[in-house]
């Protein structure tokens, strides 16, 4: 789908994905071969090589889960707020480190940002992200970039809960395709009406992508 979008001239953006896609080094490498940057969730079992202050990779790779607990023990997590919620600001504790992905060829190695989210009261991190954007980024800018992916989950839940996306019980592709298409068209109409009556405040991702990105 991404290949087709590029072939059809869809403007390139930063690819967001859940860990089912993000954990695949082949998927990430293909995005970079297309000239696309990504900010993807990855499995806690993903292994990386931590970079020192001069950008040199440590020889020993480690899982990002082990790295997260090491950072936690050293007090390396800091609170970051990424948007205003209905009742309160949405925030969590985050840590950011420069890494190389383990197991990649030398020609494919590049600076990646490992962003780790640890929510209050939880015994372990909630999410891990690998981000390929070059140069210096602030933690807040990267948090604002990855967190809007919750909208995808919200859309999926709305489609199931309000429009019966998961209610199709047939076994043939044409029927399934028709059902999905109708559900998506209905949802598109609802979103258009919502935007017409309640114009969104489109900061967040726009801020993260358009501001000068300096540490």
Question: Any overview of this molecule?
Answer:
By secondary structure, this protein is an alpha+beta fold. It has a domain at 2-148. It has 8 helices and 8 strands; from the N terminus they run H-E-H-H-E-E-E-H-E-E-E-E-H-H-H-H. Strand 7 and strand 8 (127-131) form a beta hairpin. The radius of gyration is 19 Å and the shape is globular. Mean pLDDT is 85; it is low at 202-215.
For the biggest sheet, the summary is:
8 strands, mixed
Amount of helix: 25-40%
What kind of oligomer do you see?
single chain
User: Which blocks of ≥5 consecutive residues have pLDDT under 50?
Assistant: 202-215
Beta-strand percentage?
15-25%
Overall structural class, as computed from helix and strand content, comes to: alpha+beta
End-to-end Cα distance, whole Å, is: 34 Å
Mean pLDDT: 85
Shape: globular
Q: Count helical runs.
A: 8
| Topology, number of strands | 8
Q: Secondary-structure element order, as H and E? A: HEHHEEEHEEEEHHHH
What is the alpha-carbon Rg in Å? 19 Å
Domain Transposase IS701-like DDE: 1-87
InterPro entries: IS701-like, IS701-like_DDE_dom, RNaseH-like_sf
Pfam families: DDE_5
Protein name: Transposase
């Amino acid at each position: 789908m991404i290949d087709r979008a590029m072939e059809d001239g869809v403007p390139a953006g930063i690819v967001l994905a859940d860990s089912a896609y993000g954990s695949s080094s082949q998927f990430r490498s293909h995005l970079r071969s297309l000239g696309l940057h990504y900010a993807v969730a990855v499995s806690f079992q993903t292994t990386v090589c931590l970079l020192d202050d001069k950008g040199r990779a440590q020889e020993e790779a480690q899982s990002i889960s082990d790295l997260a607990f090491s950072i936690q023990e050293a007090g390396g997590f800091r609170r970051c707020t990424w948007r205003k919620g209905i009742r309160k600001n949405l925030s969590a504790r985050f840590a950011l480190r420069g890494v190389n992905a383990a197991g990649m060829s030398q020609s494919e190695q590049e600076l990646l940002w490992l962003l780790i989210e640890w929510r209050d009261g939880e015994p372990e991190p909630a999410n891990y992200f690998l981000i390929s954007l070059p140069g210096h980024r602030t933690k807040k800018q990267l948090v604002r970039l990855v967190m809007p992916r919750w909208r995808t989950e919200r859309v999926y839940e709305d489609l199931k809960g309000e429009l019966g996306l998961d209610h199709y019980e047939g076994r043939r592709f044409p029927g399934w395709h028709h059902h999905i298409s109708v559900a998506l068209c209905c949802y598109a109409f609802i979103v258009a009406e919502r935007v017409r009556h309640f114009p969104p405040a489109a900061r967040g991702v726009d801020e993260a992508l358009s501001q000068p990105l300096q540490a």
